[in-house]
UniProtKB/TrEMBL annotation:
UniProt protein name: Thiazole synthase
Region forming the signal peptide: none
Domain Thiazole synthase ThiG: 12-258
Assembly information from the UniProt record: Homotetramer. Forms heterodimers with either ThiH or ThiS.
Length: 264
């Protein structure tokens, strides 16, 4: 019996990807662990905090691109650590210069150090400027459906609502808001932040997200390389479950086998 697994491709900025898992490059013990974990994850897109990681702006220091070459991975520079639109735009311009005209960026404008919650007002400002300057903007945002809609209308190529606060590992705290965003979305929706373990990633995919981005869940695991592999399988399982369509929930039991025709 053939198994039908029809699915639309995962496309960002005109490029198709096989893996729906995007991973960060920070918080690992060393470069070697970073390399091994990302290889184990199967990810094709890796995000890099330009303000914290050397991708060529600091000559003479270890360069992340030496272990994660751009001819093998799509480098997704992000604006982590930026707290206003001006700073975020400047960081994206630097990344484009360092990566030879690379336009794909992850916009992240934070409100404060304690929560790392997105500052949506500054995010909207930065998004408008970056889109006008020809950047392909994937944007970290709150799980507010209205803000997600506005970011799409500005011209962002993907919205990335948080599942939980960055680095908390709390999982998907408000699946209902995510469902509203997904129902309205005309661009890819990726869960970003809050994932703690494989089941969280699976739930995000079962809801219908195009992909999931994570860092802490892998890097802070007791065995990061093993967790990276677990996440790879979790993403695939969640996507297949979404395509298959879950059974309806019922209040009472329903026999697995029919009761009619029992041998007496």
């Amino acid at each position: 019996m053939s198994i039908v697994r029809s699915d639309k491709p995962f496309v960002l900025a005109g490029r198709t990807y096989q893996s729906r898992l995007l991973v960060g490059t920070g918080k690992y013990r060393d470069m070697e662990e970073t390399r091994l974990a990302i290889e184990a994850s199967g990810a094709e897109i890796v995000t890099v905090a330009v303000r914290r990681t050397n991708i060529g702006q600091n000559p003479g220091e270890p360069n992340l691109l030496d272990i994660l070459p751009p001819d093998r991975y799509t480098i997704l520079p992000n604006t982590a650590g930026c707290f206003d639109a001006i700073e975020a735009v400047r960081t994206c311009r630097l990344a484009r210069e360092l990566l030879d005209g690379h336009n794909l960026v992850k916009l992240e404008v934070l409100a404060d150090q304690k929560t790392l919650f997105p500052n949506v007002i500054e995010t909207l400002k930065a998004a408008q400027t970056l889109v006008k300057e020809g950047f392909d903007v994937m944007v970290y945002t709150s799980d507010d459906p209205i803000i997600a809609r506005q970011l799409a209308e500005i011209g962002c190529i993907a919205v990335m609502p948080l599942a939980g606060l960055i680095g908390t590992g709390l999982g998907i705290c408000n699946p209902y808001n995510l469902q509203i965003i997904l129902e309205e979305a005309k661009i890819p929706v990726l869960v970003d932040a809050g994932v703690g373990t494989a089941s969280d990633a699976t739930i995000a995919m079962e809801l219908g997200c195009e992909a999931v981005l994570m860092n802490s869940a892998i890097a802070h695991a007791q065995q990061p390389i093993l967790m990276a592999e677990a996440m790879k399988h979790a993403i695939v399982a969640g996507r297949l479950a979404y395509l298959a369509g879950r059974m309806p929930k019922k209040l009472y039991a329903s026999a697995s086998s029919p009761l009619d025709g029992l041998i007496k």
